[in-house]
Design goal:
Oligomer: heterodimer
CATH topology of the largest domain in chain B: Rossmann fold
Radius of gyration of chain A: 22 Å
Mean pLDDT of chain B: 89
Number of strands of chain B: 22
Structural class of chain A: mainly alpha
Order of helices and strands of chain A: HHHHHHHHHHHH
CATH class of the largest domain in chain B: Alpha Beta
Helix content of chain B: 10-25%
CATH class of chain A: Mainly Alpha
Strand order of the largest sheet of chain B: 8-9-10-5-11-12
CATH architecture of the largest domain in chain B: 3-Layer(aba) Sandwich
Strand content of chain B: 35-45%
CATH topology of chain A: MetI-like fold
Low-confidence stretches of chain A: none
Largest interface: A-B, 20 and 25 residues
CATH superfamily of chain A: MetI-like
Strand content of chain A: under 5%
Chain lengths: 250, 381
């Protein structure tokens, strides 16, 4: 019973979306089955695909950058001694707790101050900023399972610091790094608030595009696109989960 | 480094002398090492023994290169190793928790040191199998560390530390995580391994039985200082300080003033027990305050007063306070008439050896020879 209520509660909006993507008419009255919106999605929706492309670029680049910085940062915070370490840790987690609107405004003001033009670059930098703490958190959680003596053992057995990083630290933190990367990627892909502040002409991401499109009336093309997006997301999530399980086992 | 093949096919590496001179190390206000000096010989099985916090692990970490001393000298043979990082020292460590790489199989854990250097695939494989053979882990080669038992993990850690053919192997309480029975077996294995590879072993432990059992020599440490260095029997029979006497095994210590010296027989007036006779070499003066120690297993216990045919120089009367039966021996806690508590161990050599059974609250005599007592140290006023 609980299962069905939950399932209906969560799935009903999606079902409505799915249903109307096959509606022949434009309005919310059912006028017959049709694939016309799917056709239009691939033939007459250049702007939408541009936005998709922007989103993918932003998500890939920003999540890669934040994965590299976040992983190295986690390793540093976890295993190295330096001054002001506790402050560094709490500061790094600040974007995690700040309301997105504050973050968006402050990044915009900062970009204005340093004279960075708004566009793809500013969006990527902003996304890196707010996805970084997630990577940091996940890699640190993974590393906390291991004792520092592993690092010492590696050094003792003849590894340089760099060899230790490549042969021991990165492999053992890999599950954390991967889940950090996936989280960062997803967060970047779906972000609206921060992106709204820092995007410029030509750097509209998918959420921004959909939002502005809906303001001029819902086109069922968006419905069709959403259905495709759901399918792709589910496929990705399932395979990512399997990959992680495999990695942790190995 | 000289390699000599042995019968087992194991490559024998001759170890190095280790010299530690005046090593001082503090962590903030805590003085972990207060000027430690040691000379450890080539190929020796040397133990650092002491309670936790005595500085033994700090000393080991300095030898491995994980800590730098505030001052002092650490030399391998005749070269200073302090400027070298851990990866450049011909010293390898078996860590207390083994520190195996969780992402690598047994094979790859052992091969790790060779993978770091350009070793040909053929040589690498041969040397890994040689090590697997040495520590009897051939059938577990593809397992991950998590799938191994504690004893197996320890053997992987040893194989991994030995494959580089170090001159010195450091062992940091390698048995502390294992149960008592297994510990006995692995101690024997460790001793045989030491004989097989022939390099210098430096073994850190707080367990005196482990240290006495396998070591050529033992250094007893407390509060950042080395109190005594010697062969296990020297440490046990001739402890240099009261701490050593009480830390190694069990003992009865008595403090008193020398009242008479007759050749090497010395009479000590002890608090609570009266005059105790002891043979001791050295220059002892009447009036000196000394600490006398008598090991519980060297004391005889009987219901009847020992006859004069037996050479019992010290005989005292008391009452059994408690008796603990261990099978191979019994431990008695005897309250001497004067109020002193005495520990006495009686070994059960024969089945009926227990004689008239001595029970709780029985009146007994405890007796020992002057030869078996030992003057530990002078008490400085």
């Amino acid at each position: 019973m609980v299962f069905w209520i939950t399932a209906i509660f969560l799935m009903l909006p999606l079902l409505v979306l799915l249903l109307y993507s096959f509606n022949a008419g434009r309005s919310f009255t059912w006028t017959g089955f049709s694939l016309v919106w799917y056709e239009k999605l691939f033939t007459e929706s250049g702007q939408l695909w541009q936005a998709v492309w922007n989103s993918v670029i932003v998500a890939v680049v920003s999540s890669l950058v934040s994965t590299v910085i976040g992983s190295l940062g986690a390793i540093g915070i976890n295993w190295y001694r330096f001054s002001y370490k506790p402050y560094t840790t709490s500061l790094s987690f600040l974007p995690l707790v700040l309301p997105e609107i504050v973050l968006g405004v402050s990044i915009l003001v900062f970009f204005n101050m340093i004279g960075l033009p708004l566009g793809m670059v500013s969006v990527i930098i902003a996304h890196t900023t707010f996805t970084l703490p997630f990577v940091l958190l996940m890699v640190m959680a993974r590393l906390s399972e291991f004792d520092f003596s592993i690092i010492e053992a590696s050094r003792d057995l003849g590894a340089t610091e760099f060899q230790t990083l490549v042969r021991v630290i990165i492999p053992i933190s890999m599950p954390g790094i991967l889940s950090g990367f996936l989280t960062a990627f997803t967060l970047s892909l779906e972000d609206f608030v921060v992106t709204l502040f820092v995007s410029g002409p030509g750097s509209s991401t998918l959420p921004l595009y959909i939002f502005s499109a809906i303001r001029f009336g819902v086109t069922p093309t968006i419905n069709a696109f959403s259905v495709l997006l759901i399918l792709v997301t589910v496929a990705l999530a399932v395979s990512a989960q399997r990959l992680l399980k495999y990695l942790i086992k190995a | 480094m000289t390699d000599i093949p042995t019968q087992q096919g194991v490559v024998r590496v001759i170890g190095s002398d280790v010299t530690v001179q005046g090593v001082i190390k503090s962590f903030g206000d805590f003085k972990a090492l207060k000027g430690v000096s040691l000379q450890i010989n080539k190929g020796e099985f040397f133990s650092l023994l002491g309670p936790s916090g005595c500085g033994k692990t700090t000393l080991l970490r300095i030898l491995a290169g994980f800590e730098n001393p505030d001052s002092g000298v650490v030399m391998l043979d005749s070269s200073d190793i302090l400027p070298l990082p851990p990866n450049k020292r011909p010293i390898n460590t078996v860590f207390q928790n083994y520190a195996l790489f969780p992402h690598l199989s047994v094979y790859e854990n052992i091969a790790f040191p060779l993978r770091l250097r350009k070793t040909s695939a053929k040589e690498l494989d041969a040397r890994v199998w040689e090590m697997l053979d040495l520590v009897h882990l051939k059938e577990h080669v593809n397992k991950k560390p998590q799938q191994l038992s504690g004893g197996q993990r320890q053997r992987v850690a040893i194989a991994r530390a030995l494959i580089n053919r170090p001159n010195v192997l450091l062992l940091d309480e390698p048995l502390s995580a294992l149960d008592a029975k297994l510990r006995q077996q692995l101690l024997v294995d460790l001793d045989e391994l030491h004989d097989a590879v022939g390099i210098t072993f430096i073994y850190v432990t707080h367990d005196q039985a482990e240290a006495l059992g396998v070591s050529d020599r033992v250094a007893v440490m407390n509060k950042g200082e080395v109190l005594q260095v010697g062969a296990p029997h020297e440490i046990y029979e001739a402890p240099a300080t009261t701490f050593v006497a009480e830390f190694i095994g069990e003992t009865n210590t008595l403090e008193g003033t020398i009242t008479k010296v007759e050749g090497d027989v010395i009479y000590i007036d002890t608090q609570g027990l009266g005059i105790v006779e002891v043979t001791a070499e050295g220059n002892w003066q009447v009036g000196e305050r000394v600490v006398h120690s008598i090991r519980p297993e060297k004391i005889r216990i009987s219901k009847e007063r020992p006859s004069h045919e037996q050479k019992d120089d010290n005989v005292f009367h008391g009452k059994v306070h408690e008796r603990i039966y261990f099978g191979h021996q019994s431990k008695f806690y005897v309250n001497i008439d004067s109020g002193l508590k005495f520990k006495v161990f009686k070994q059960h050599v024969n089945y009926m050896d227990m004689g008239p059974l001595i029970k709780w609250d029985d009146e007994v005599y405890v007796a020992w020879d002057a030869d078996d007592g030992y003057i530990v140290e002078r008490v400085r006023a």
